[in-house]
Design a protein that fits this description.
It is a single chain. This protein is an alpha/beta fold. 28% of the residues lie in helices and 27% in strands. It has two domains: 139 residues, 3-Layer(aba) Sandwich (Rossmann fold); 136 residues, Riboflavin kinase-like (Elongation Factor Tu (Ef-tu), domain 3). It contains ten helices and twelve strands. A six-stranded parallel β-sheet has the order 1-4-3-2-5-6. Helix 7 packs antiparallel against helix 8. The longest helix has 17 residues.
């Protein structure tokens, strides 16, 4: 998949373009991309980094990093991605300027987006405008019940199974493996401590079963109350894994919420509970 930062970097071609933020690349986003598949046209996505709401001064809890978004788009067979920097200059473009410079300038003949998509300065551009400008517009209805907001709500409740049903794949946490407290190794369960970007959403605190690097993983998300912690940490114990993960990017799937985090009466009780978590992780089923 070819990734560029401006339409000027694209090779000339007839294009069918899906446009949107696509945070999480959920089932609704996939419907928009699928609608753009057109014989004789390069399947192209126009998307934004950072999230437009961030640039406009709103806090956003993202469902995934830009890197992960690109990986998921590639898996869907997207051929080109125009990853536009959403800054004050881009936000100031009128709707007509946006359509002409970024869509027609990319070679777009077909444009697909959610039926409520708005664009341009003050969000004054709509799909009727694109049709008047001569684009073939494919209006994609919202997938019933599917939205980034609903996914965030499910994750806030710790319901990773419901989130997976809306995403079309398991929910994930992602970060770079950094040095942690190193208690897990002394307990017999060495964990990878994920340094996550502060604007990434992590689900409700608790213990989860999931996977990473092809290994089942028992995942702790929370403050580690047994040791009096206050800072949120995301730690994954990869079952039957041997190797050094420090400094590496790790994407961890979340399959099932096993329990709340808790403080225990003794370290032996904690070890026994972790061992039970590991056995339940071995039996966990990846959500479809």
């Amino acid at each position: 998949m070819n990734v560029v930062r401006s339409v000027a970097e694209l090779q000339p071609a007839a294009r069918a373009i899906a446009i949107g933020t696509f945070d999480g690349v959920h089932l609704g986003h996939r419907a928009v991309i699928d609608a753009a598949r057109t014989p004789g046209h390069r399947l192209t996505v126009v998307t934004f980094d950072p999230h437009p709401r961030e640039t406009l001064g709103h806090a956003v809890r993202l469902l995934g990093t830009t890197e992960r978004r690109l990986e998921l788009l590639e898996k869907l067979g997207v051929e080109d991605v125009v990853l536009l920097r959403f800054d004050a200059e881009l936000a100031s473009l009128s709707a007509e300027e946006f359509a002409e410079s970024l869509l027609r300038g990319s070679g777009a003949e077909v444009v697909t987006c959610g039926e409520d998509f708005l664009f341009g300065r003050g969000r004054t551009g709509d799909l009727d405008l694109l049709e008047r400008l001569g684009f073939e517009v494919r209006r994609v209805p919202l997938v019933p019940g599917v939205s980034s907001t609903r996914i965030r709500e499910a994750l806030d409740d710790g319901d990773v199974v419901a989130a997976a049903a809306l995403l079309g794949r398991p929910a994930e946490v992602e970060g770079t493996v950094a040095l942690g407290d190193q208690r897990g190794g002394t307990l017999g369960f060495p964990t990878a401590n994920l340094a996550m970007a502060p604007n990434l959403l992590a689900p409700k605190h608790g213990i989860y079963a999931g996977s990473a690097l092809g290994h089942r993983a028992a995942i702790s998300i929370g403050t580690n109350p047994h040791y009096g912690g206050t800072e949120r940490k995301v730690e994954a114990f990869l079952l039957d894994y041997e190797g050094d993960l420090y400094g590496k990017r790790l994407v961890v799937e979340l399959w099932e919420r096993l329990r709340d985090e808790a403080a225990f009466e003794s370290e032996q009780a904690l070890i026994a509970q972790i061992a039970d978590d590991v056995e339940r992780t071995r039996a966990a089923v990846r959500p479809a």
